[in-house]
Design brief:
The complex is a heterodimer of chains A (108) and B (115).
Chain A (H helix, E strand, L loop, with lengths): L3 E4 L2 E5 L4 E7 L5 E7 L5 E6 L3 E5 L2 E6 L4 E6 L8 E8 L5 E3 L3 E6 L1
Parallel strand pairs in A: 2-11
Antiparallel strand pairs in A: 1-3, 3-8, 4-5, 4-9, 6-7, 7-8, 9-10, 9-11
Chain B lengths: L3 E4 L2 E4 L5 E7 L6 E7 L5 E8 L5 E2 L8 E7 L2 E6 L8 E8 L6 E3 L3 E5 L1
Parallel strand pairs in B: 2-11
Antiparallel strand pairs in B: 1-3, 3-8, 4-5, 4-9, 5-6, 7-8, 9-10, 9-11
Classes of the chains: A mainly beta (108), B mainly beta (115).
């Protein structure tokens, strides 16, 4: 089946730094989303981005479907950005596959 | 963005009892909802896909008699953990797909502790 790999698995940054999180997938997908899981477990939608580039404040994402990867950019990191970032790809028949996540820790 | 409400947020129960978790899409219709289980520091594991008006589709290894799923309306799906045991303790999360956009939205999650 399809493989969804996220890198890096863990990332520790100082507040104010920028970061790039990557999601590689091994086959064609119908859609792709990025989520942030905060320390309380709540999953927050960041981007629904099957292809192209989107920006929302300090966050932006780019998906290059033909090359089977997506990138999430976080600029000027804040401590509230800490948590786990998941990408999830949607396949046919409503199948959704999650990556294992990138655990981000922003130091004050 | 769209809102998915999950209730209860946390529940503690005795071994052998059943627990029901509700998942509601508040401002959109969801013909498809999904139930996940998440162990500490791990990714989400899909348990089942819930389709309005029909039987849920369970992933391999998930006991359908143990985890009963009902999707009686376009805005509500329920997960019932029957005869719960300590090994069922976990974080359960639901999601709903907006039928119009295809985008997935998540509930807040329910932390189940079985004593």
């Amino acid at each position: 089946g399809i493989q969804v790999e996220q890198s890096p698995p863990d990332l520790i940054l100082q507040e104010g730094a920028n970061s790039t999180l990557r999601c590689n997938f091994s086959d064609s997908v119908n859609n792709l989303q990025w989520f942030h899981q905060n320390p309380w477990g709540q999953l927050i939608n960041l981007f629904y981005i099957p292809s192209g580039t989107k920006q929302n404040g300090r966050l932006s994402a780019t998906t290059v479907a033909t090359e089977r990867y997506s990138l999430l950019y976080i600029s000027s990191s804040q401590t509230t950005d800490s948590g786990v970032y998941f990408c999830a790809v949607g396949l046919a028949r409503d199948k959704i596959i999650f990556g294992k996540g990138t655990r981000l820790h922003i130091l004050p | 963005g769209a809102v998915v409400s999950q209730h209860p947020s946390w529940v503690i129960c005795k071994s052998g009892t059943s627990v029901k978790i509700e998942c509601r899409s508040l401002d959109f219709q969801a013909t498809t909802m999904f139930w996940y289980r998440q162990f500490p520091k791990q990714s989400l594991m899909l348990m089942a896909t819930s389709n309005e008006g029909s039987k849920a589709t369970y992933e391999q290894g998930v006991e359908k008699d143990k985890f009963l799923i009902n999707h009686a309306s376009l805005t509500l799906s329920t997960l019932t953990v029957t005869s719960a045991h300590p090994e069922d303790s976990s974080f359960y999360i639901c999601s709903a797909r907006d039928s119009a956009s295809g985008e997935l939205f998540f509930g807040e999650g329910s932390r189940l502790t079985v004593l």
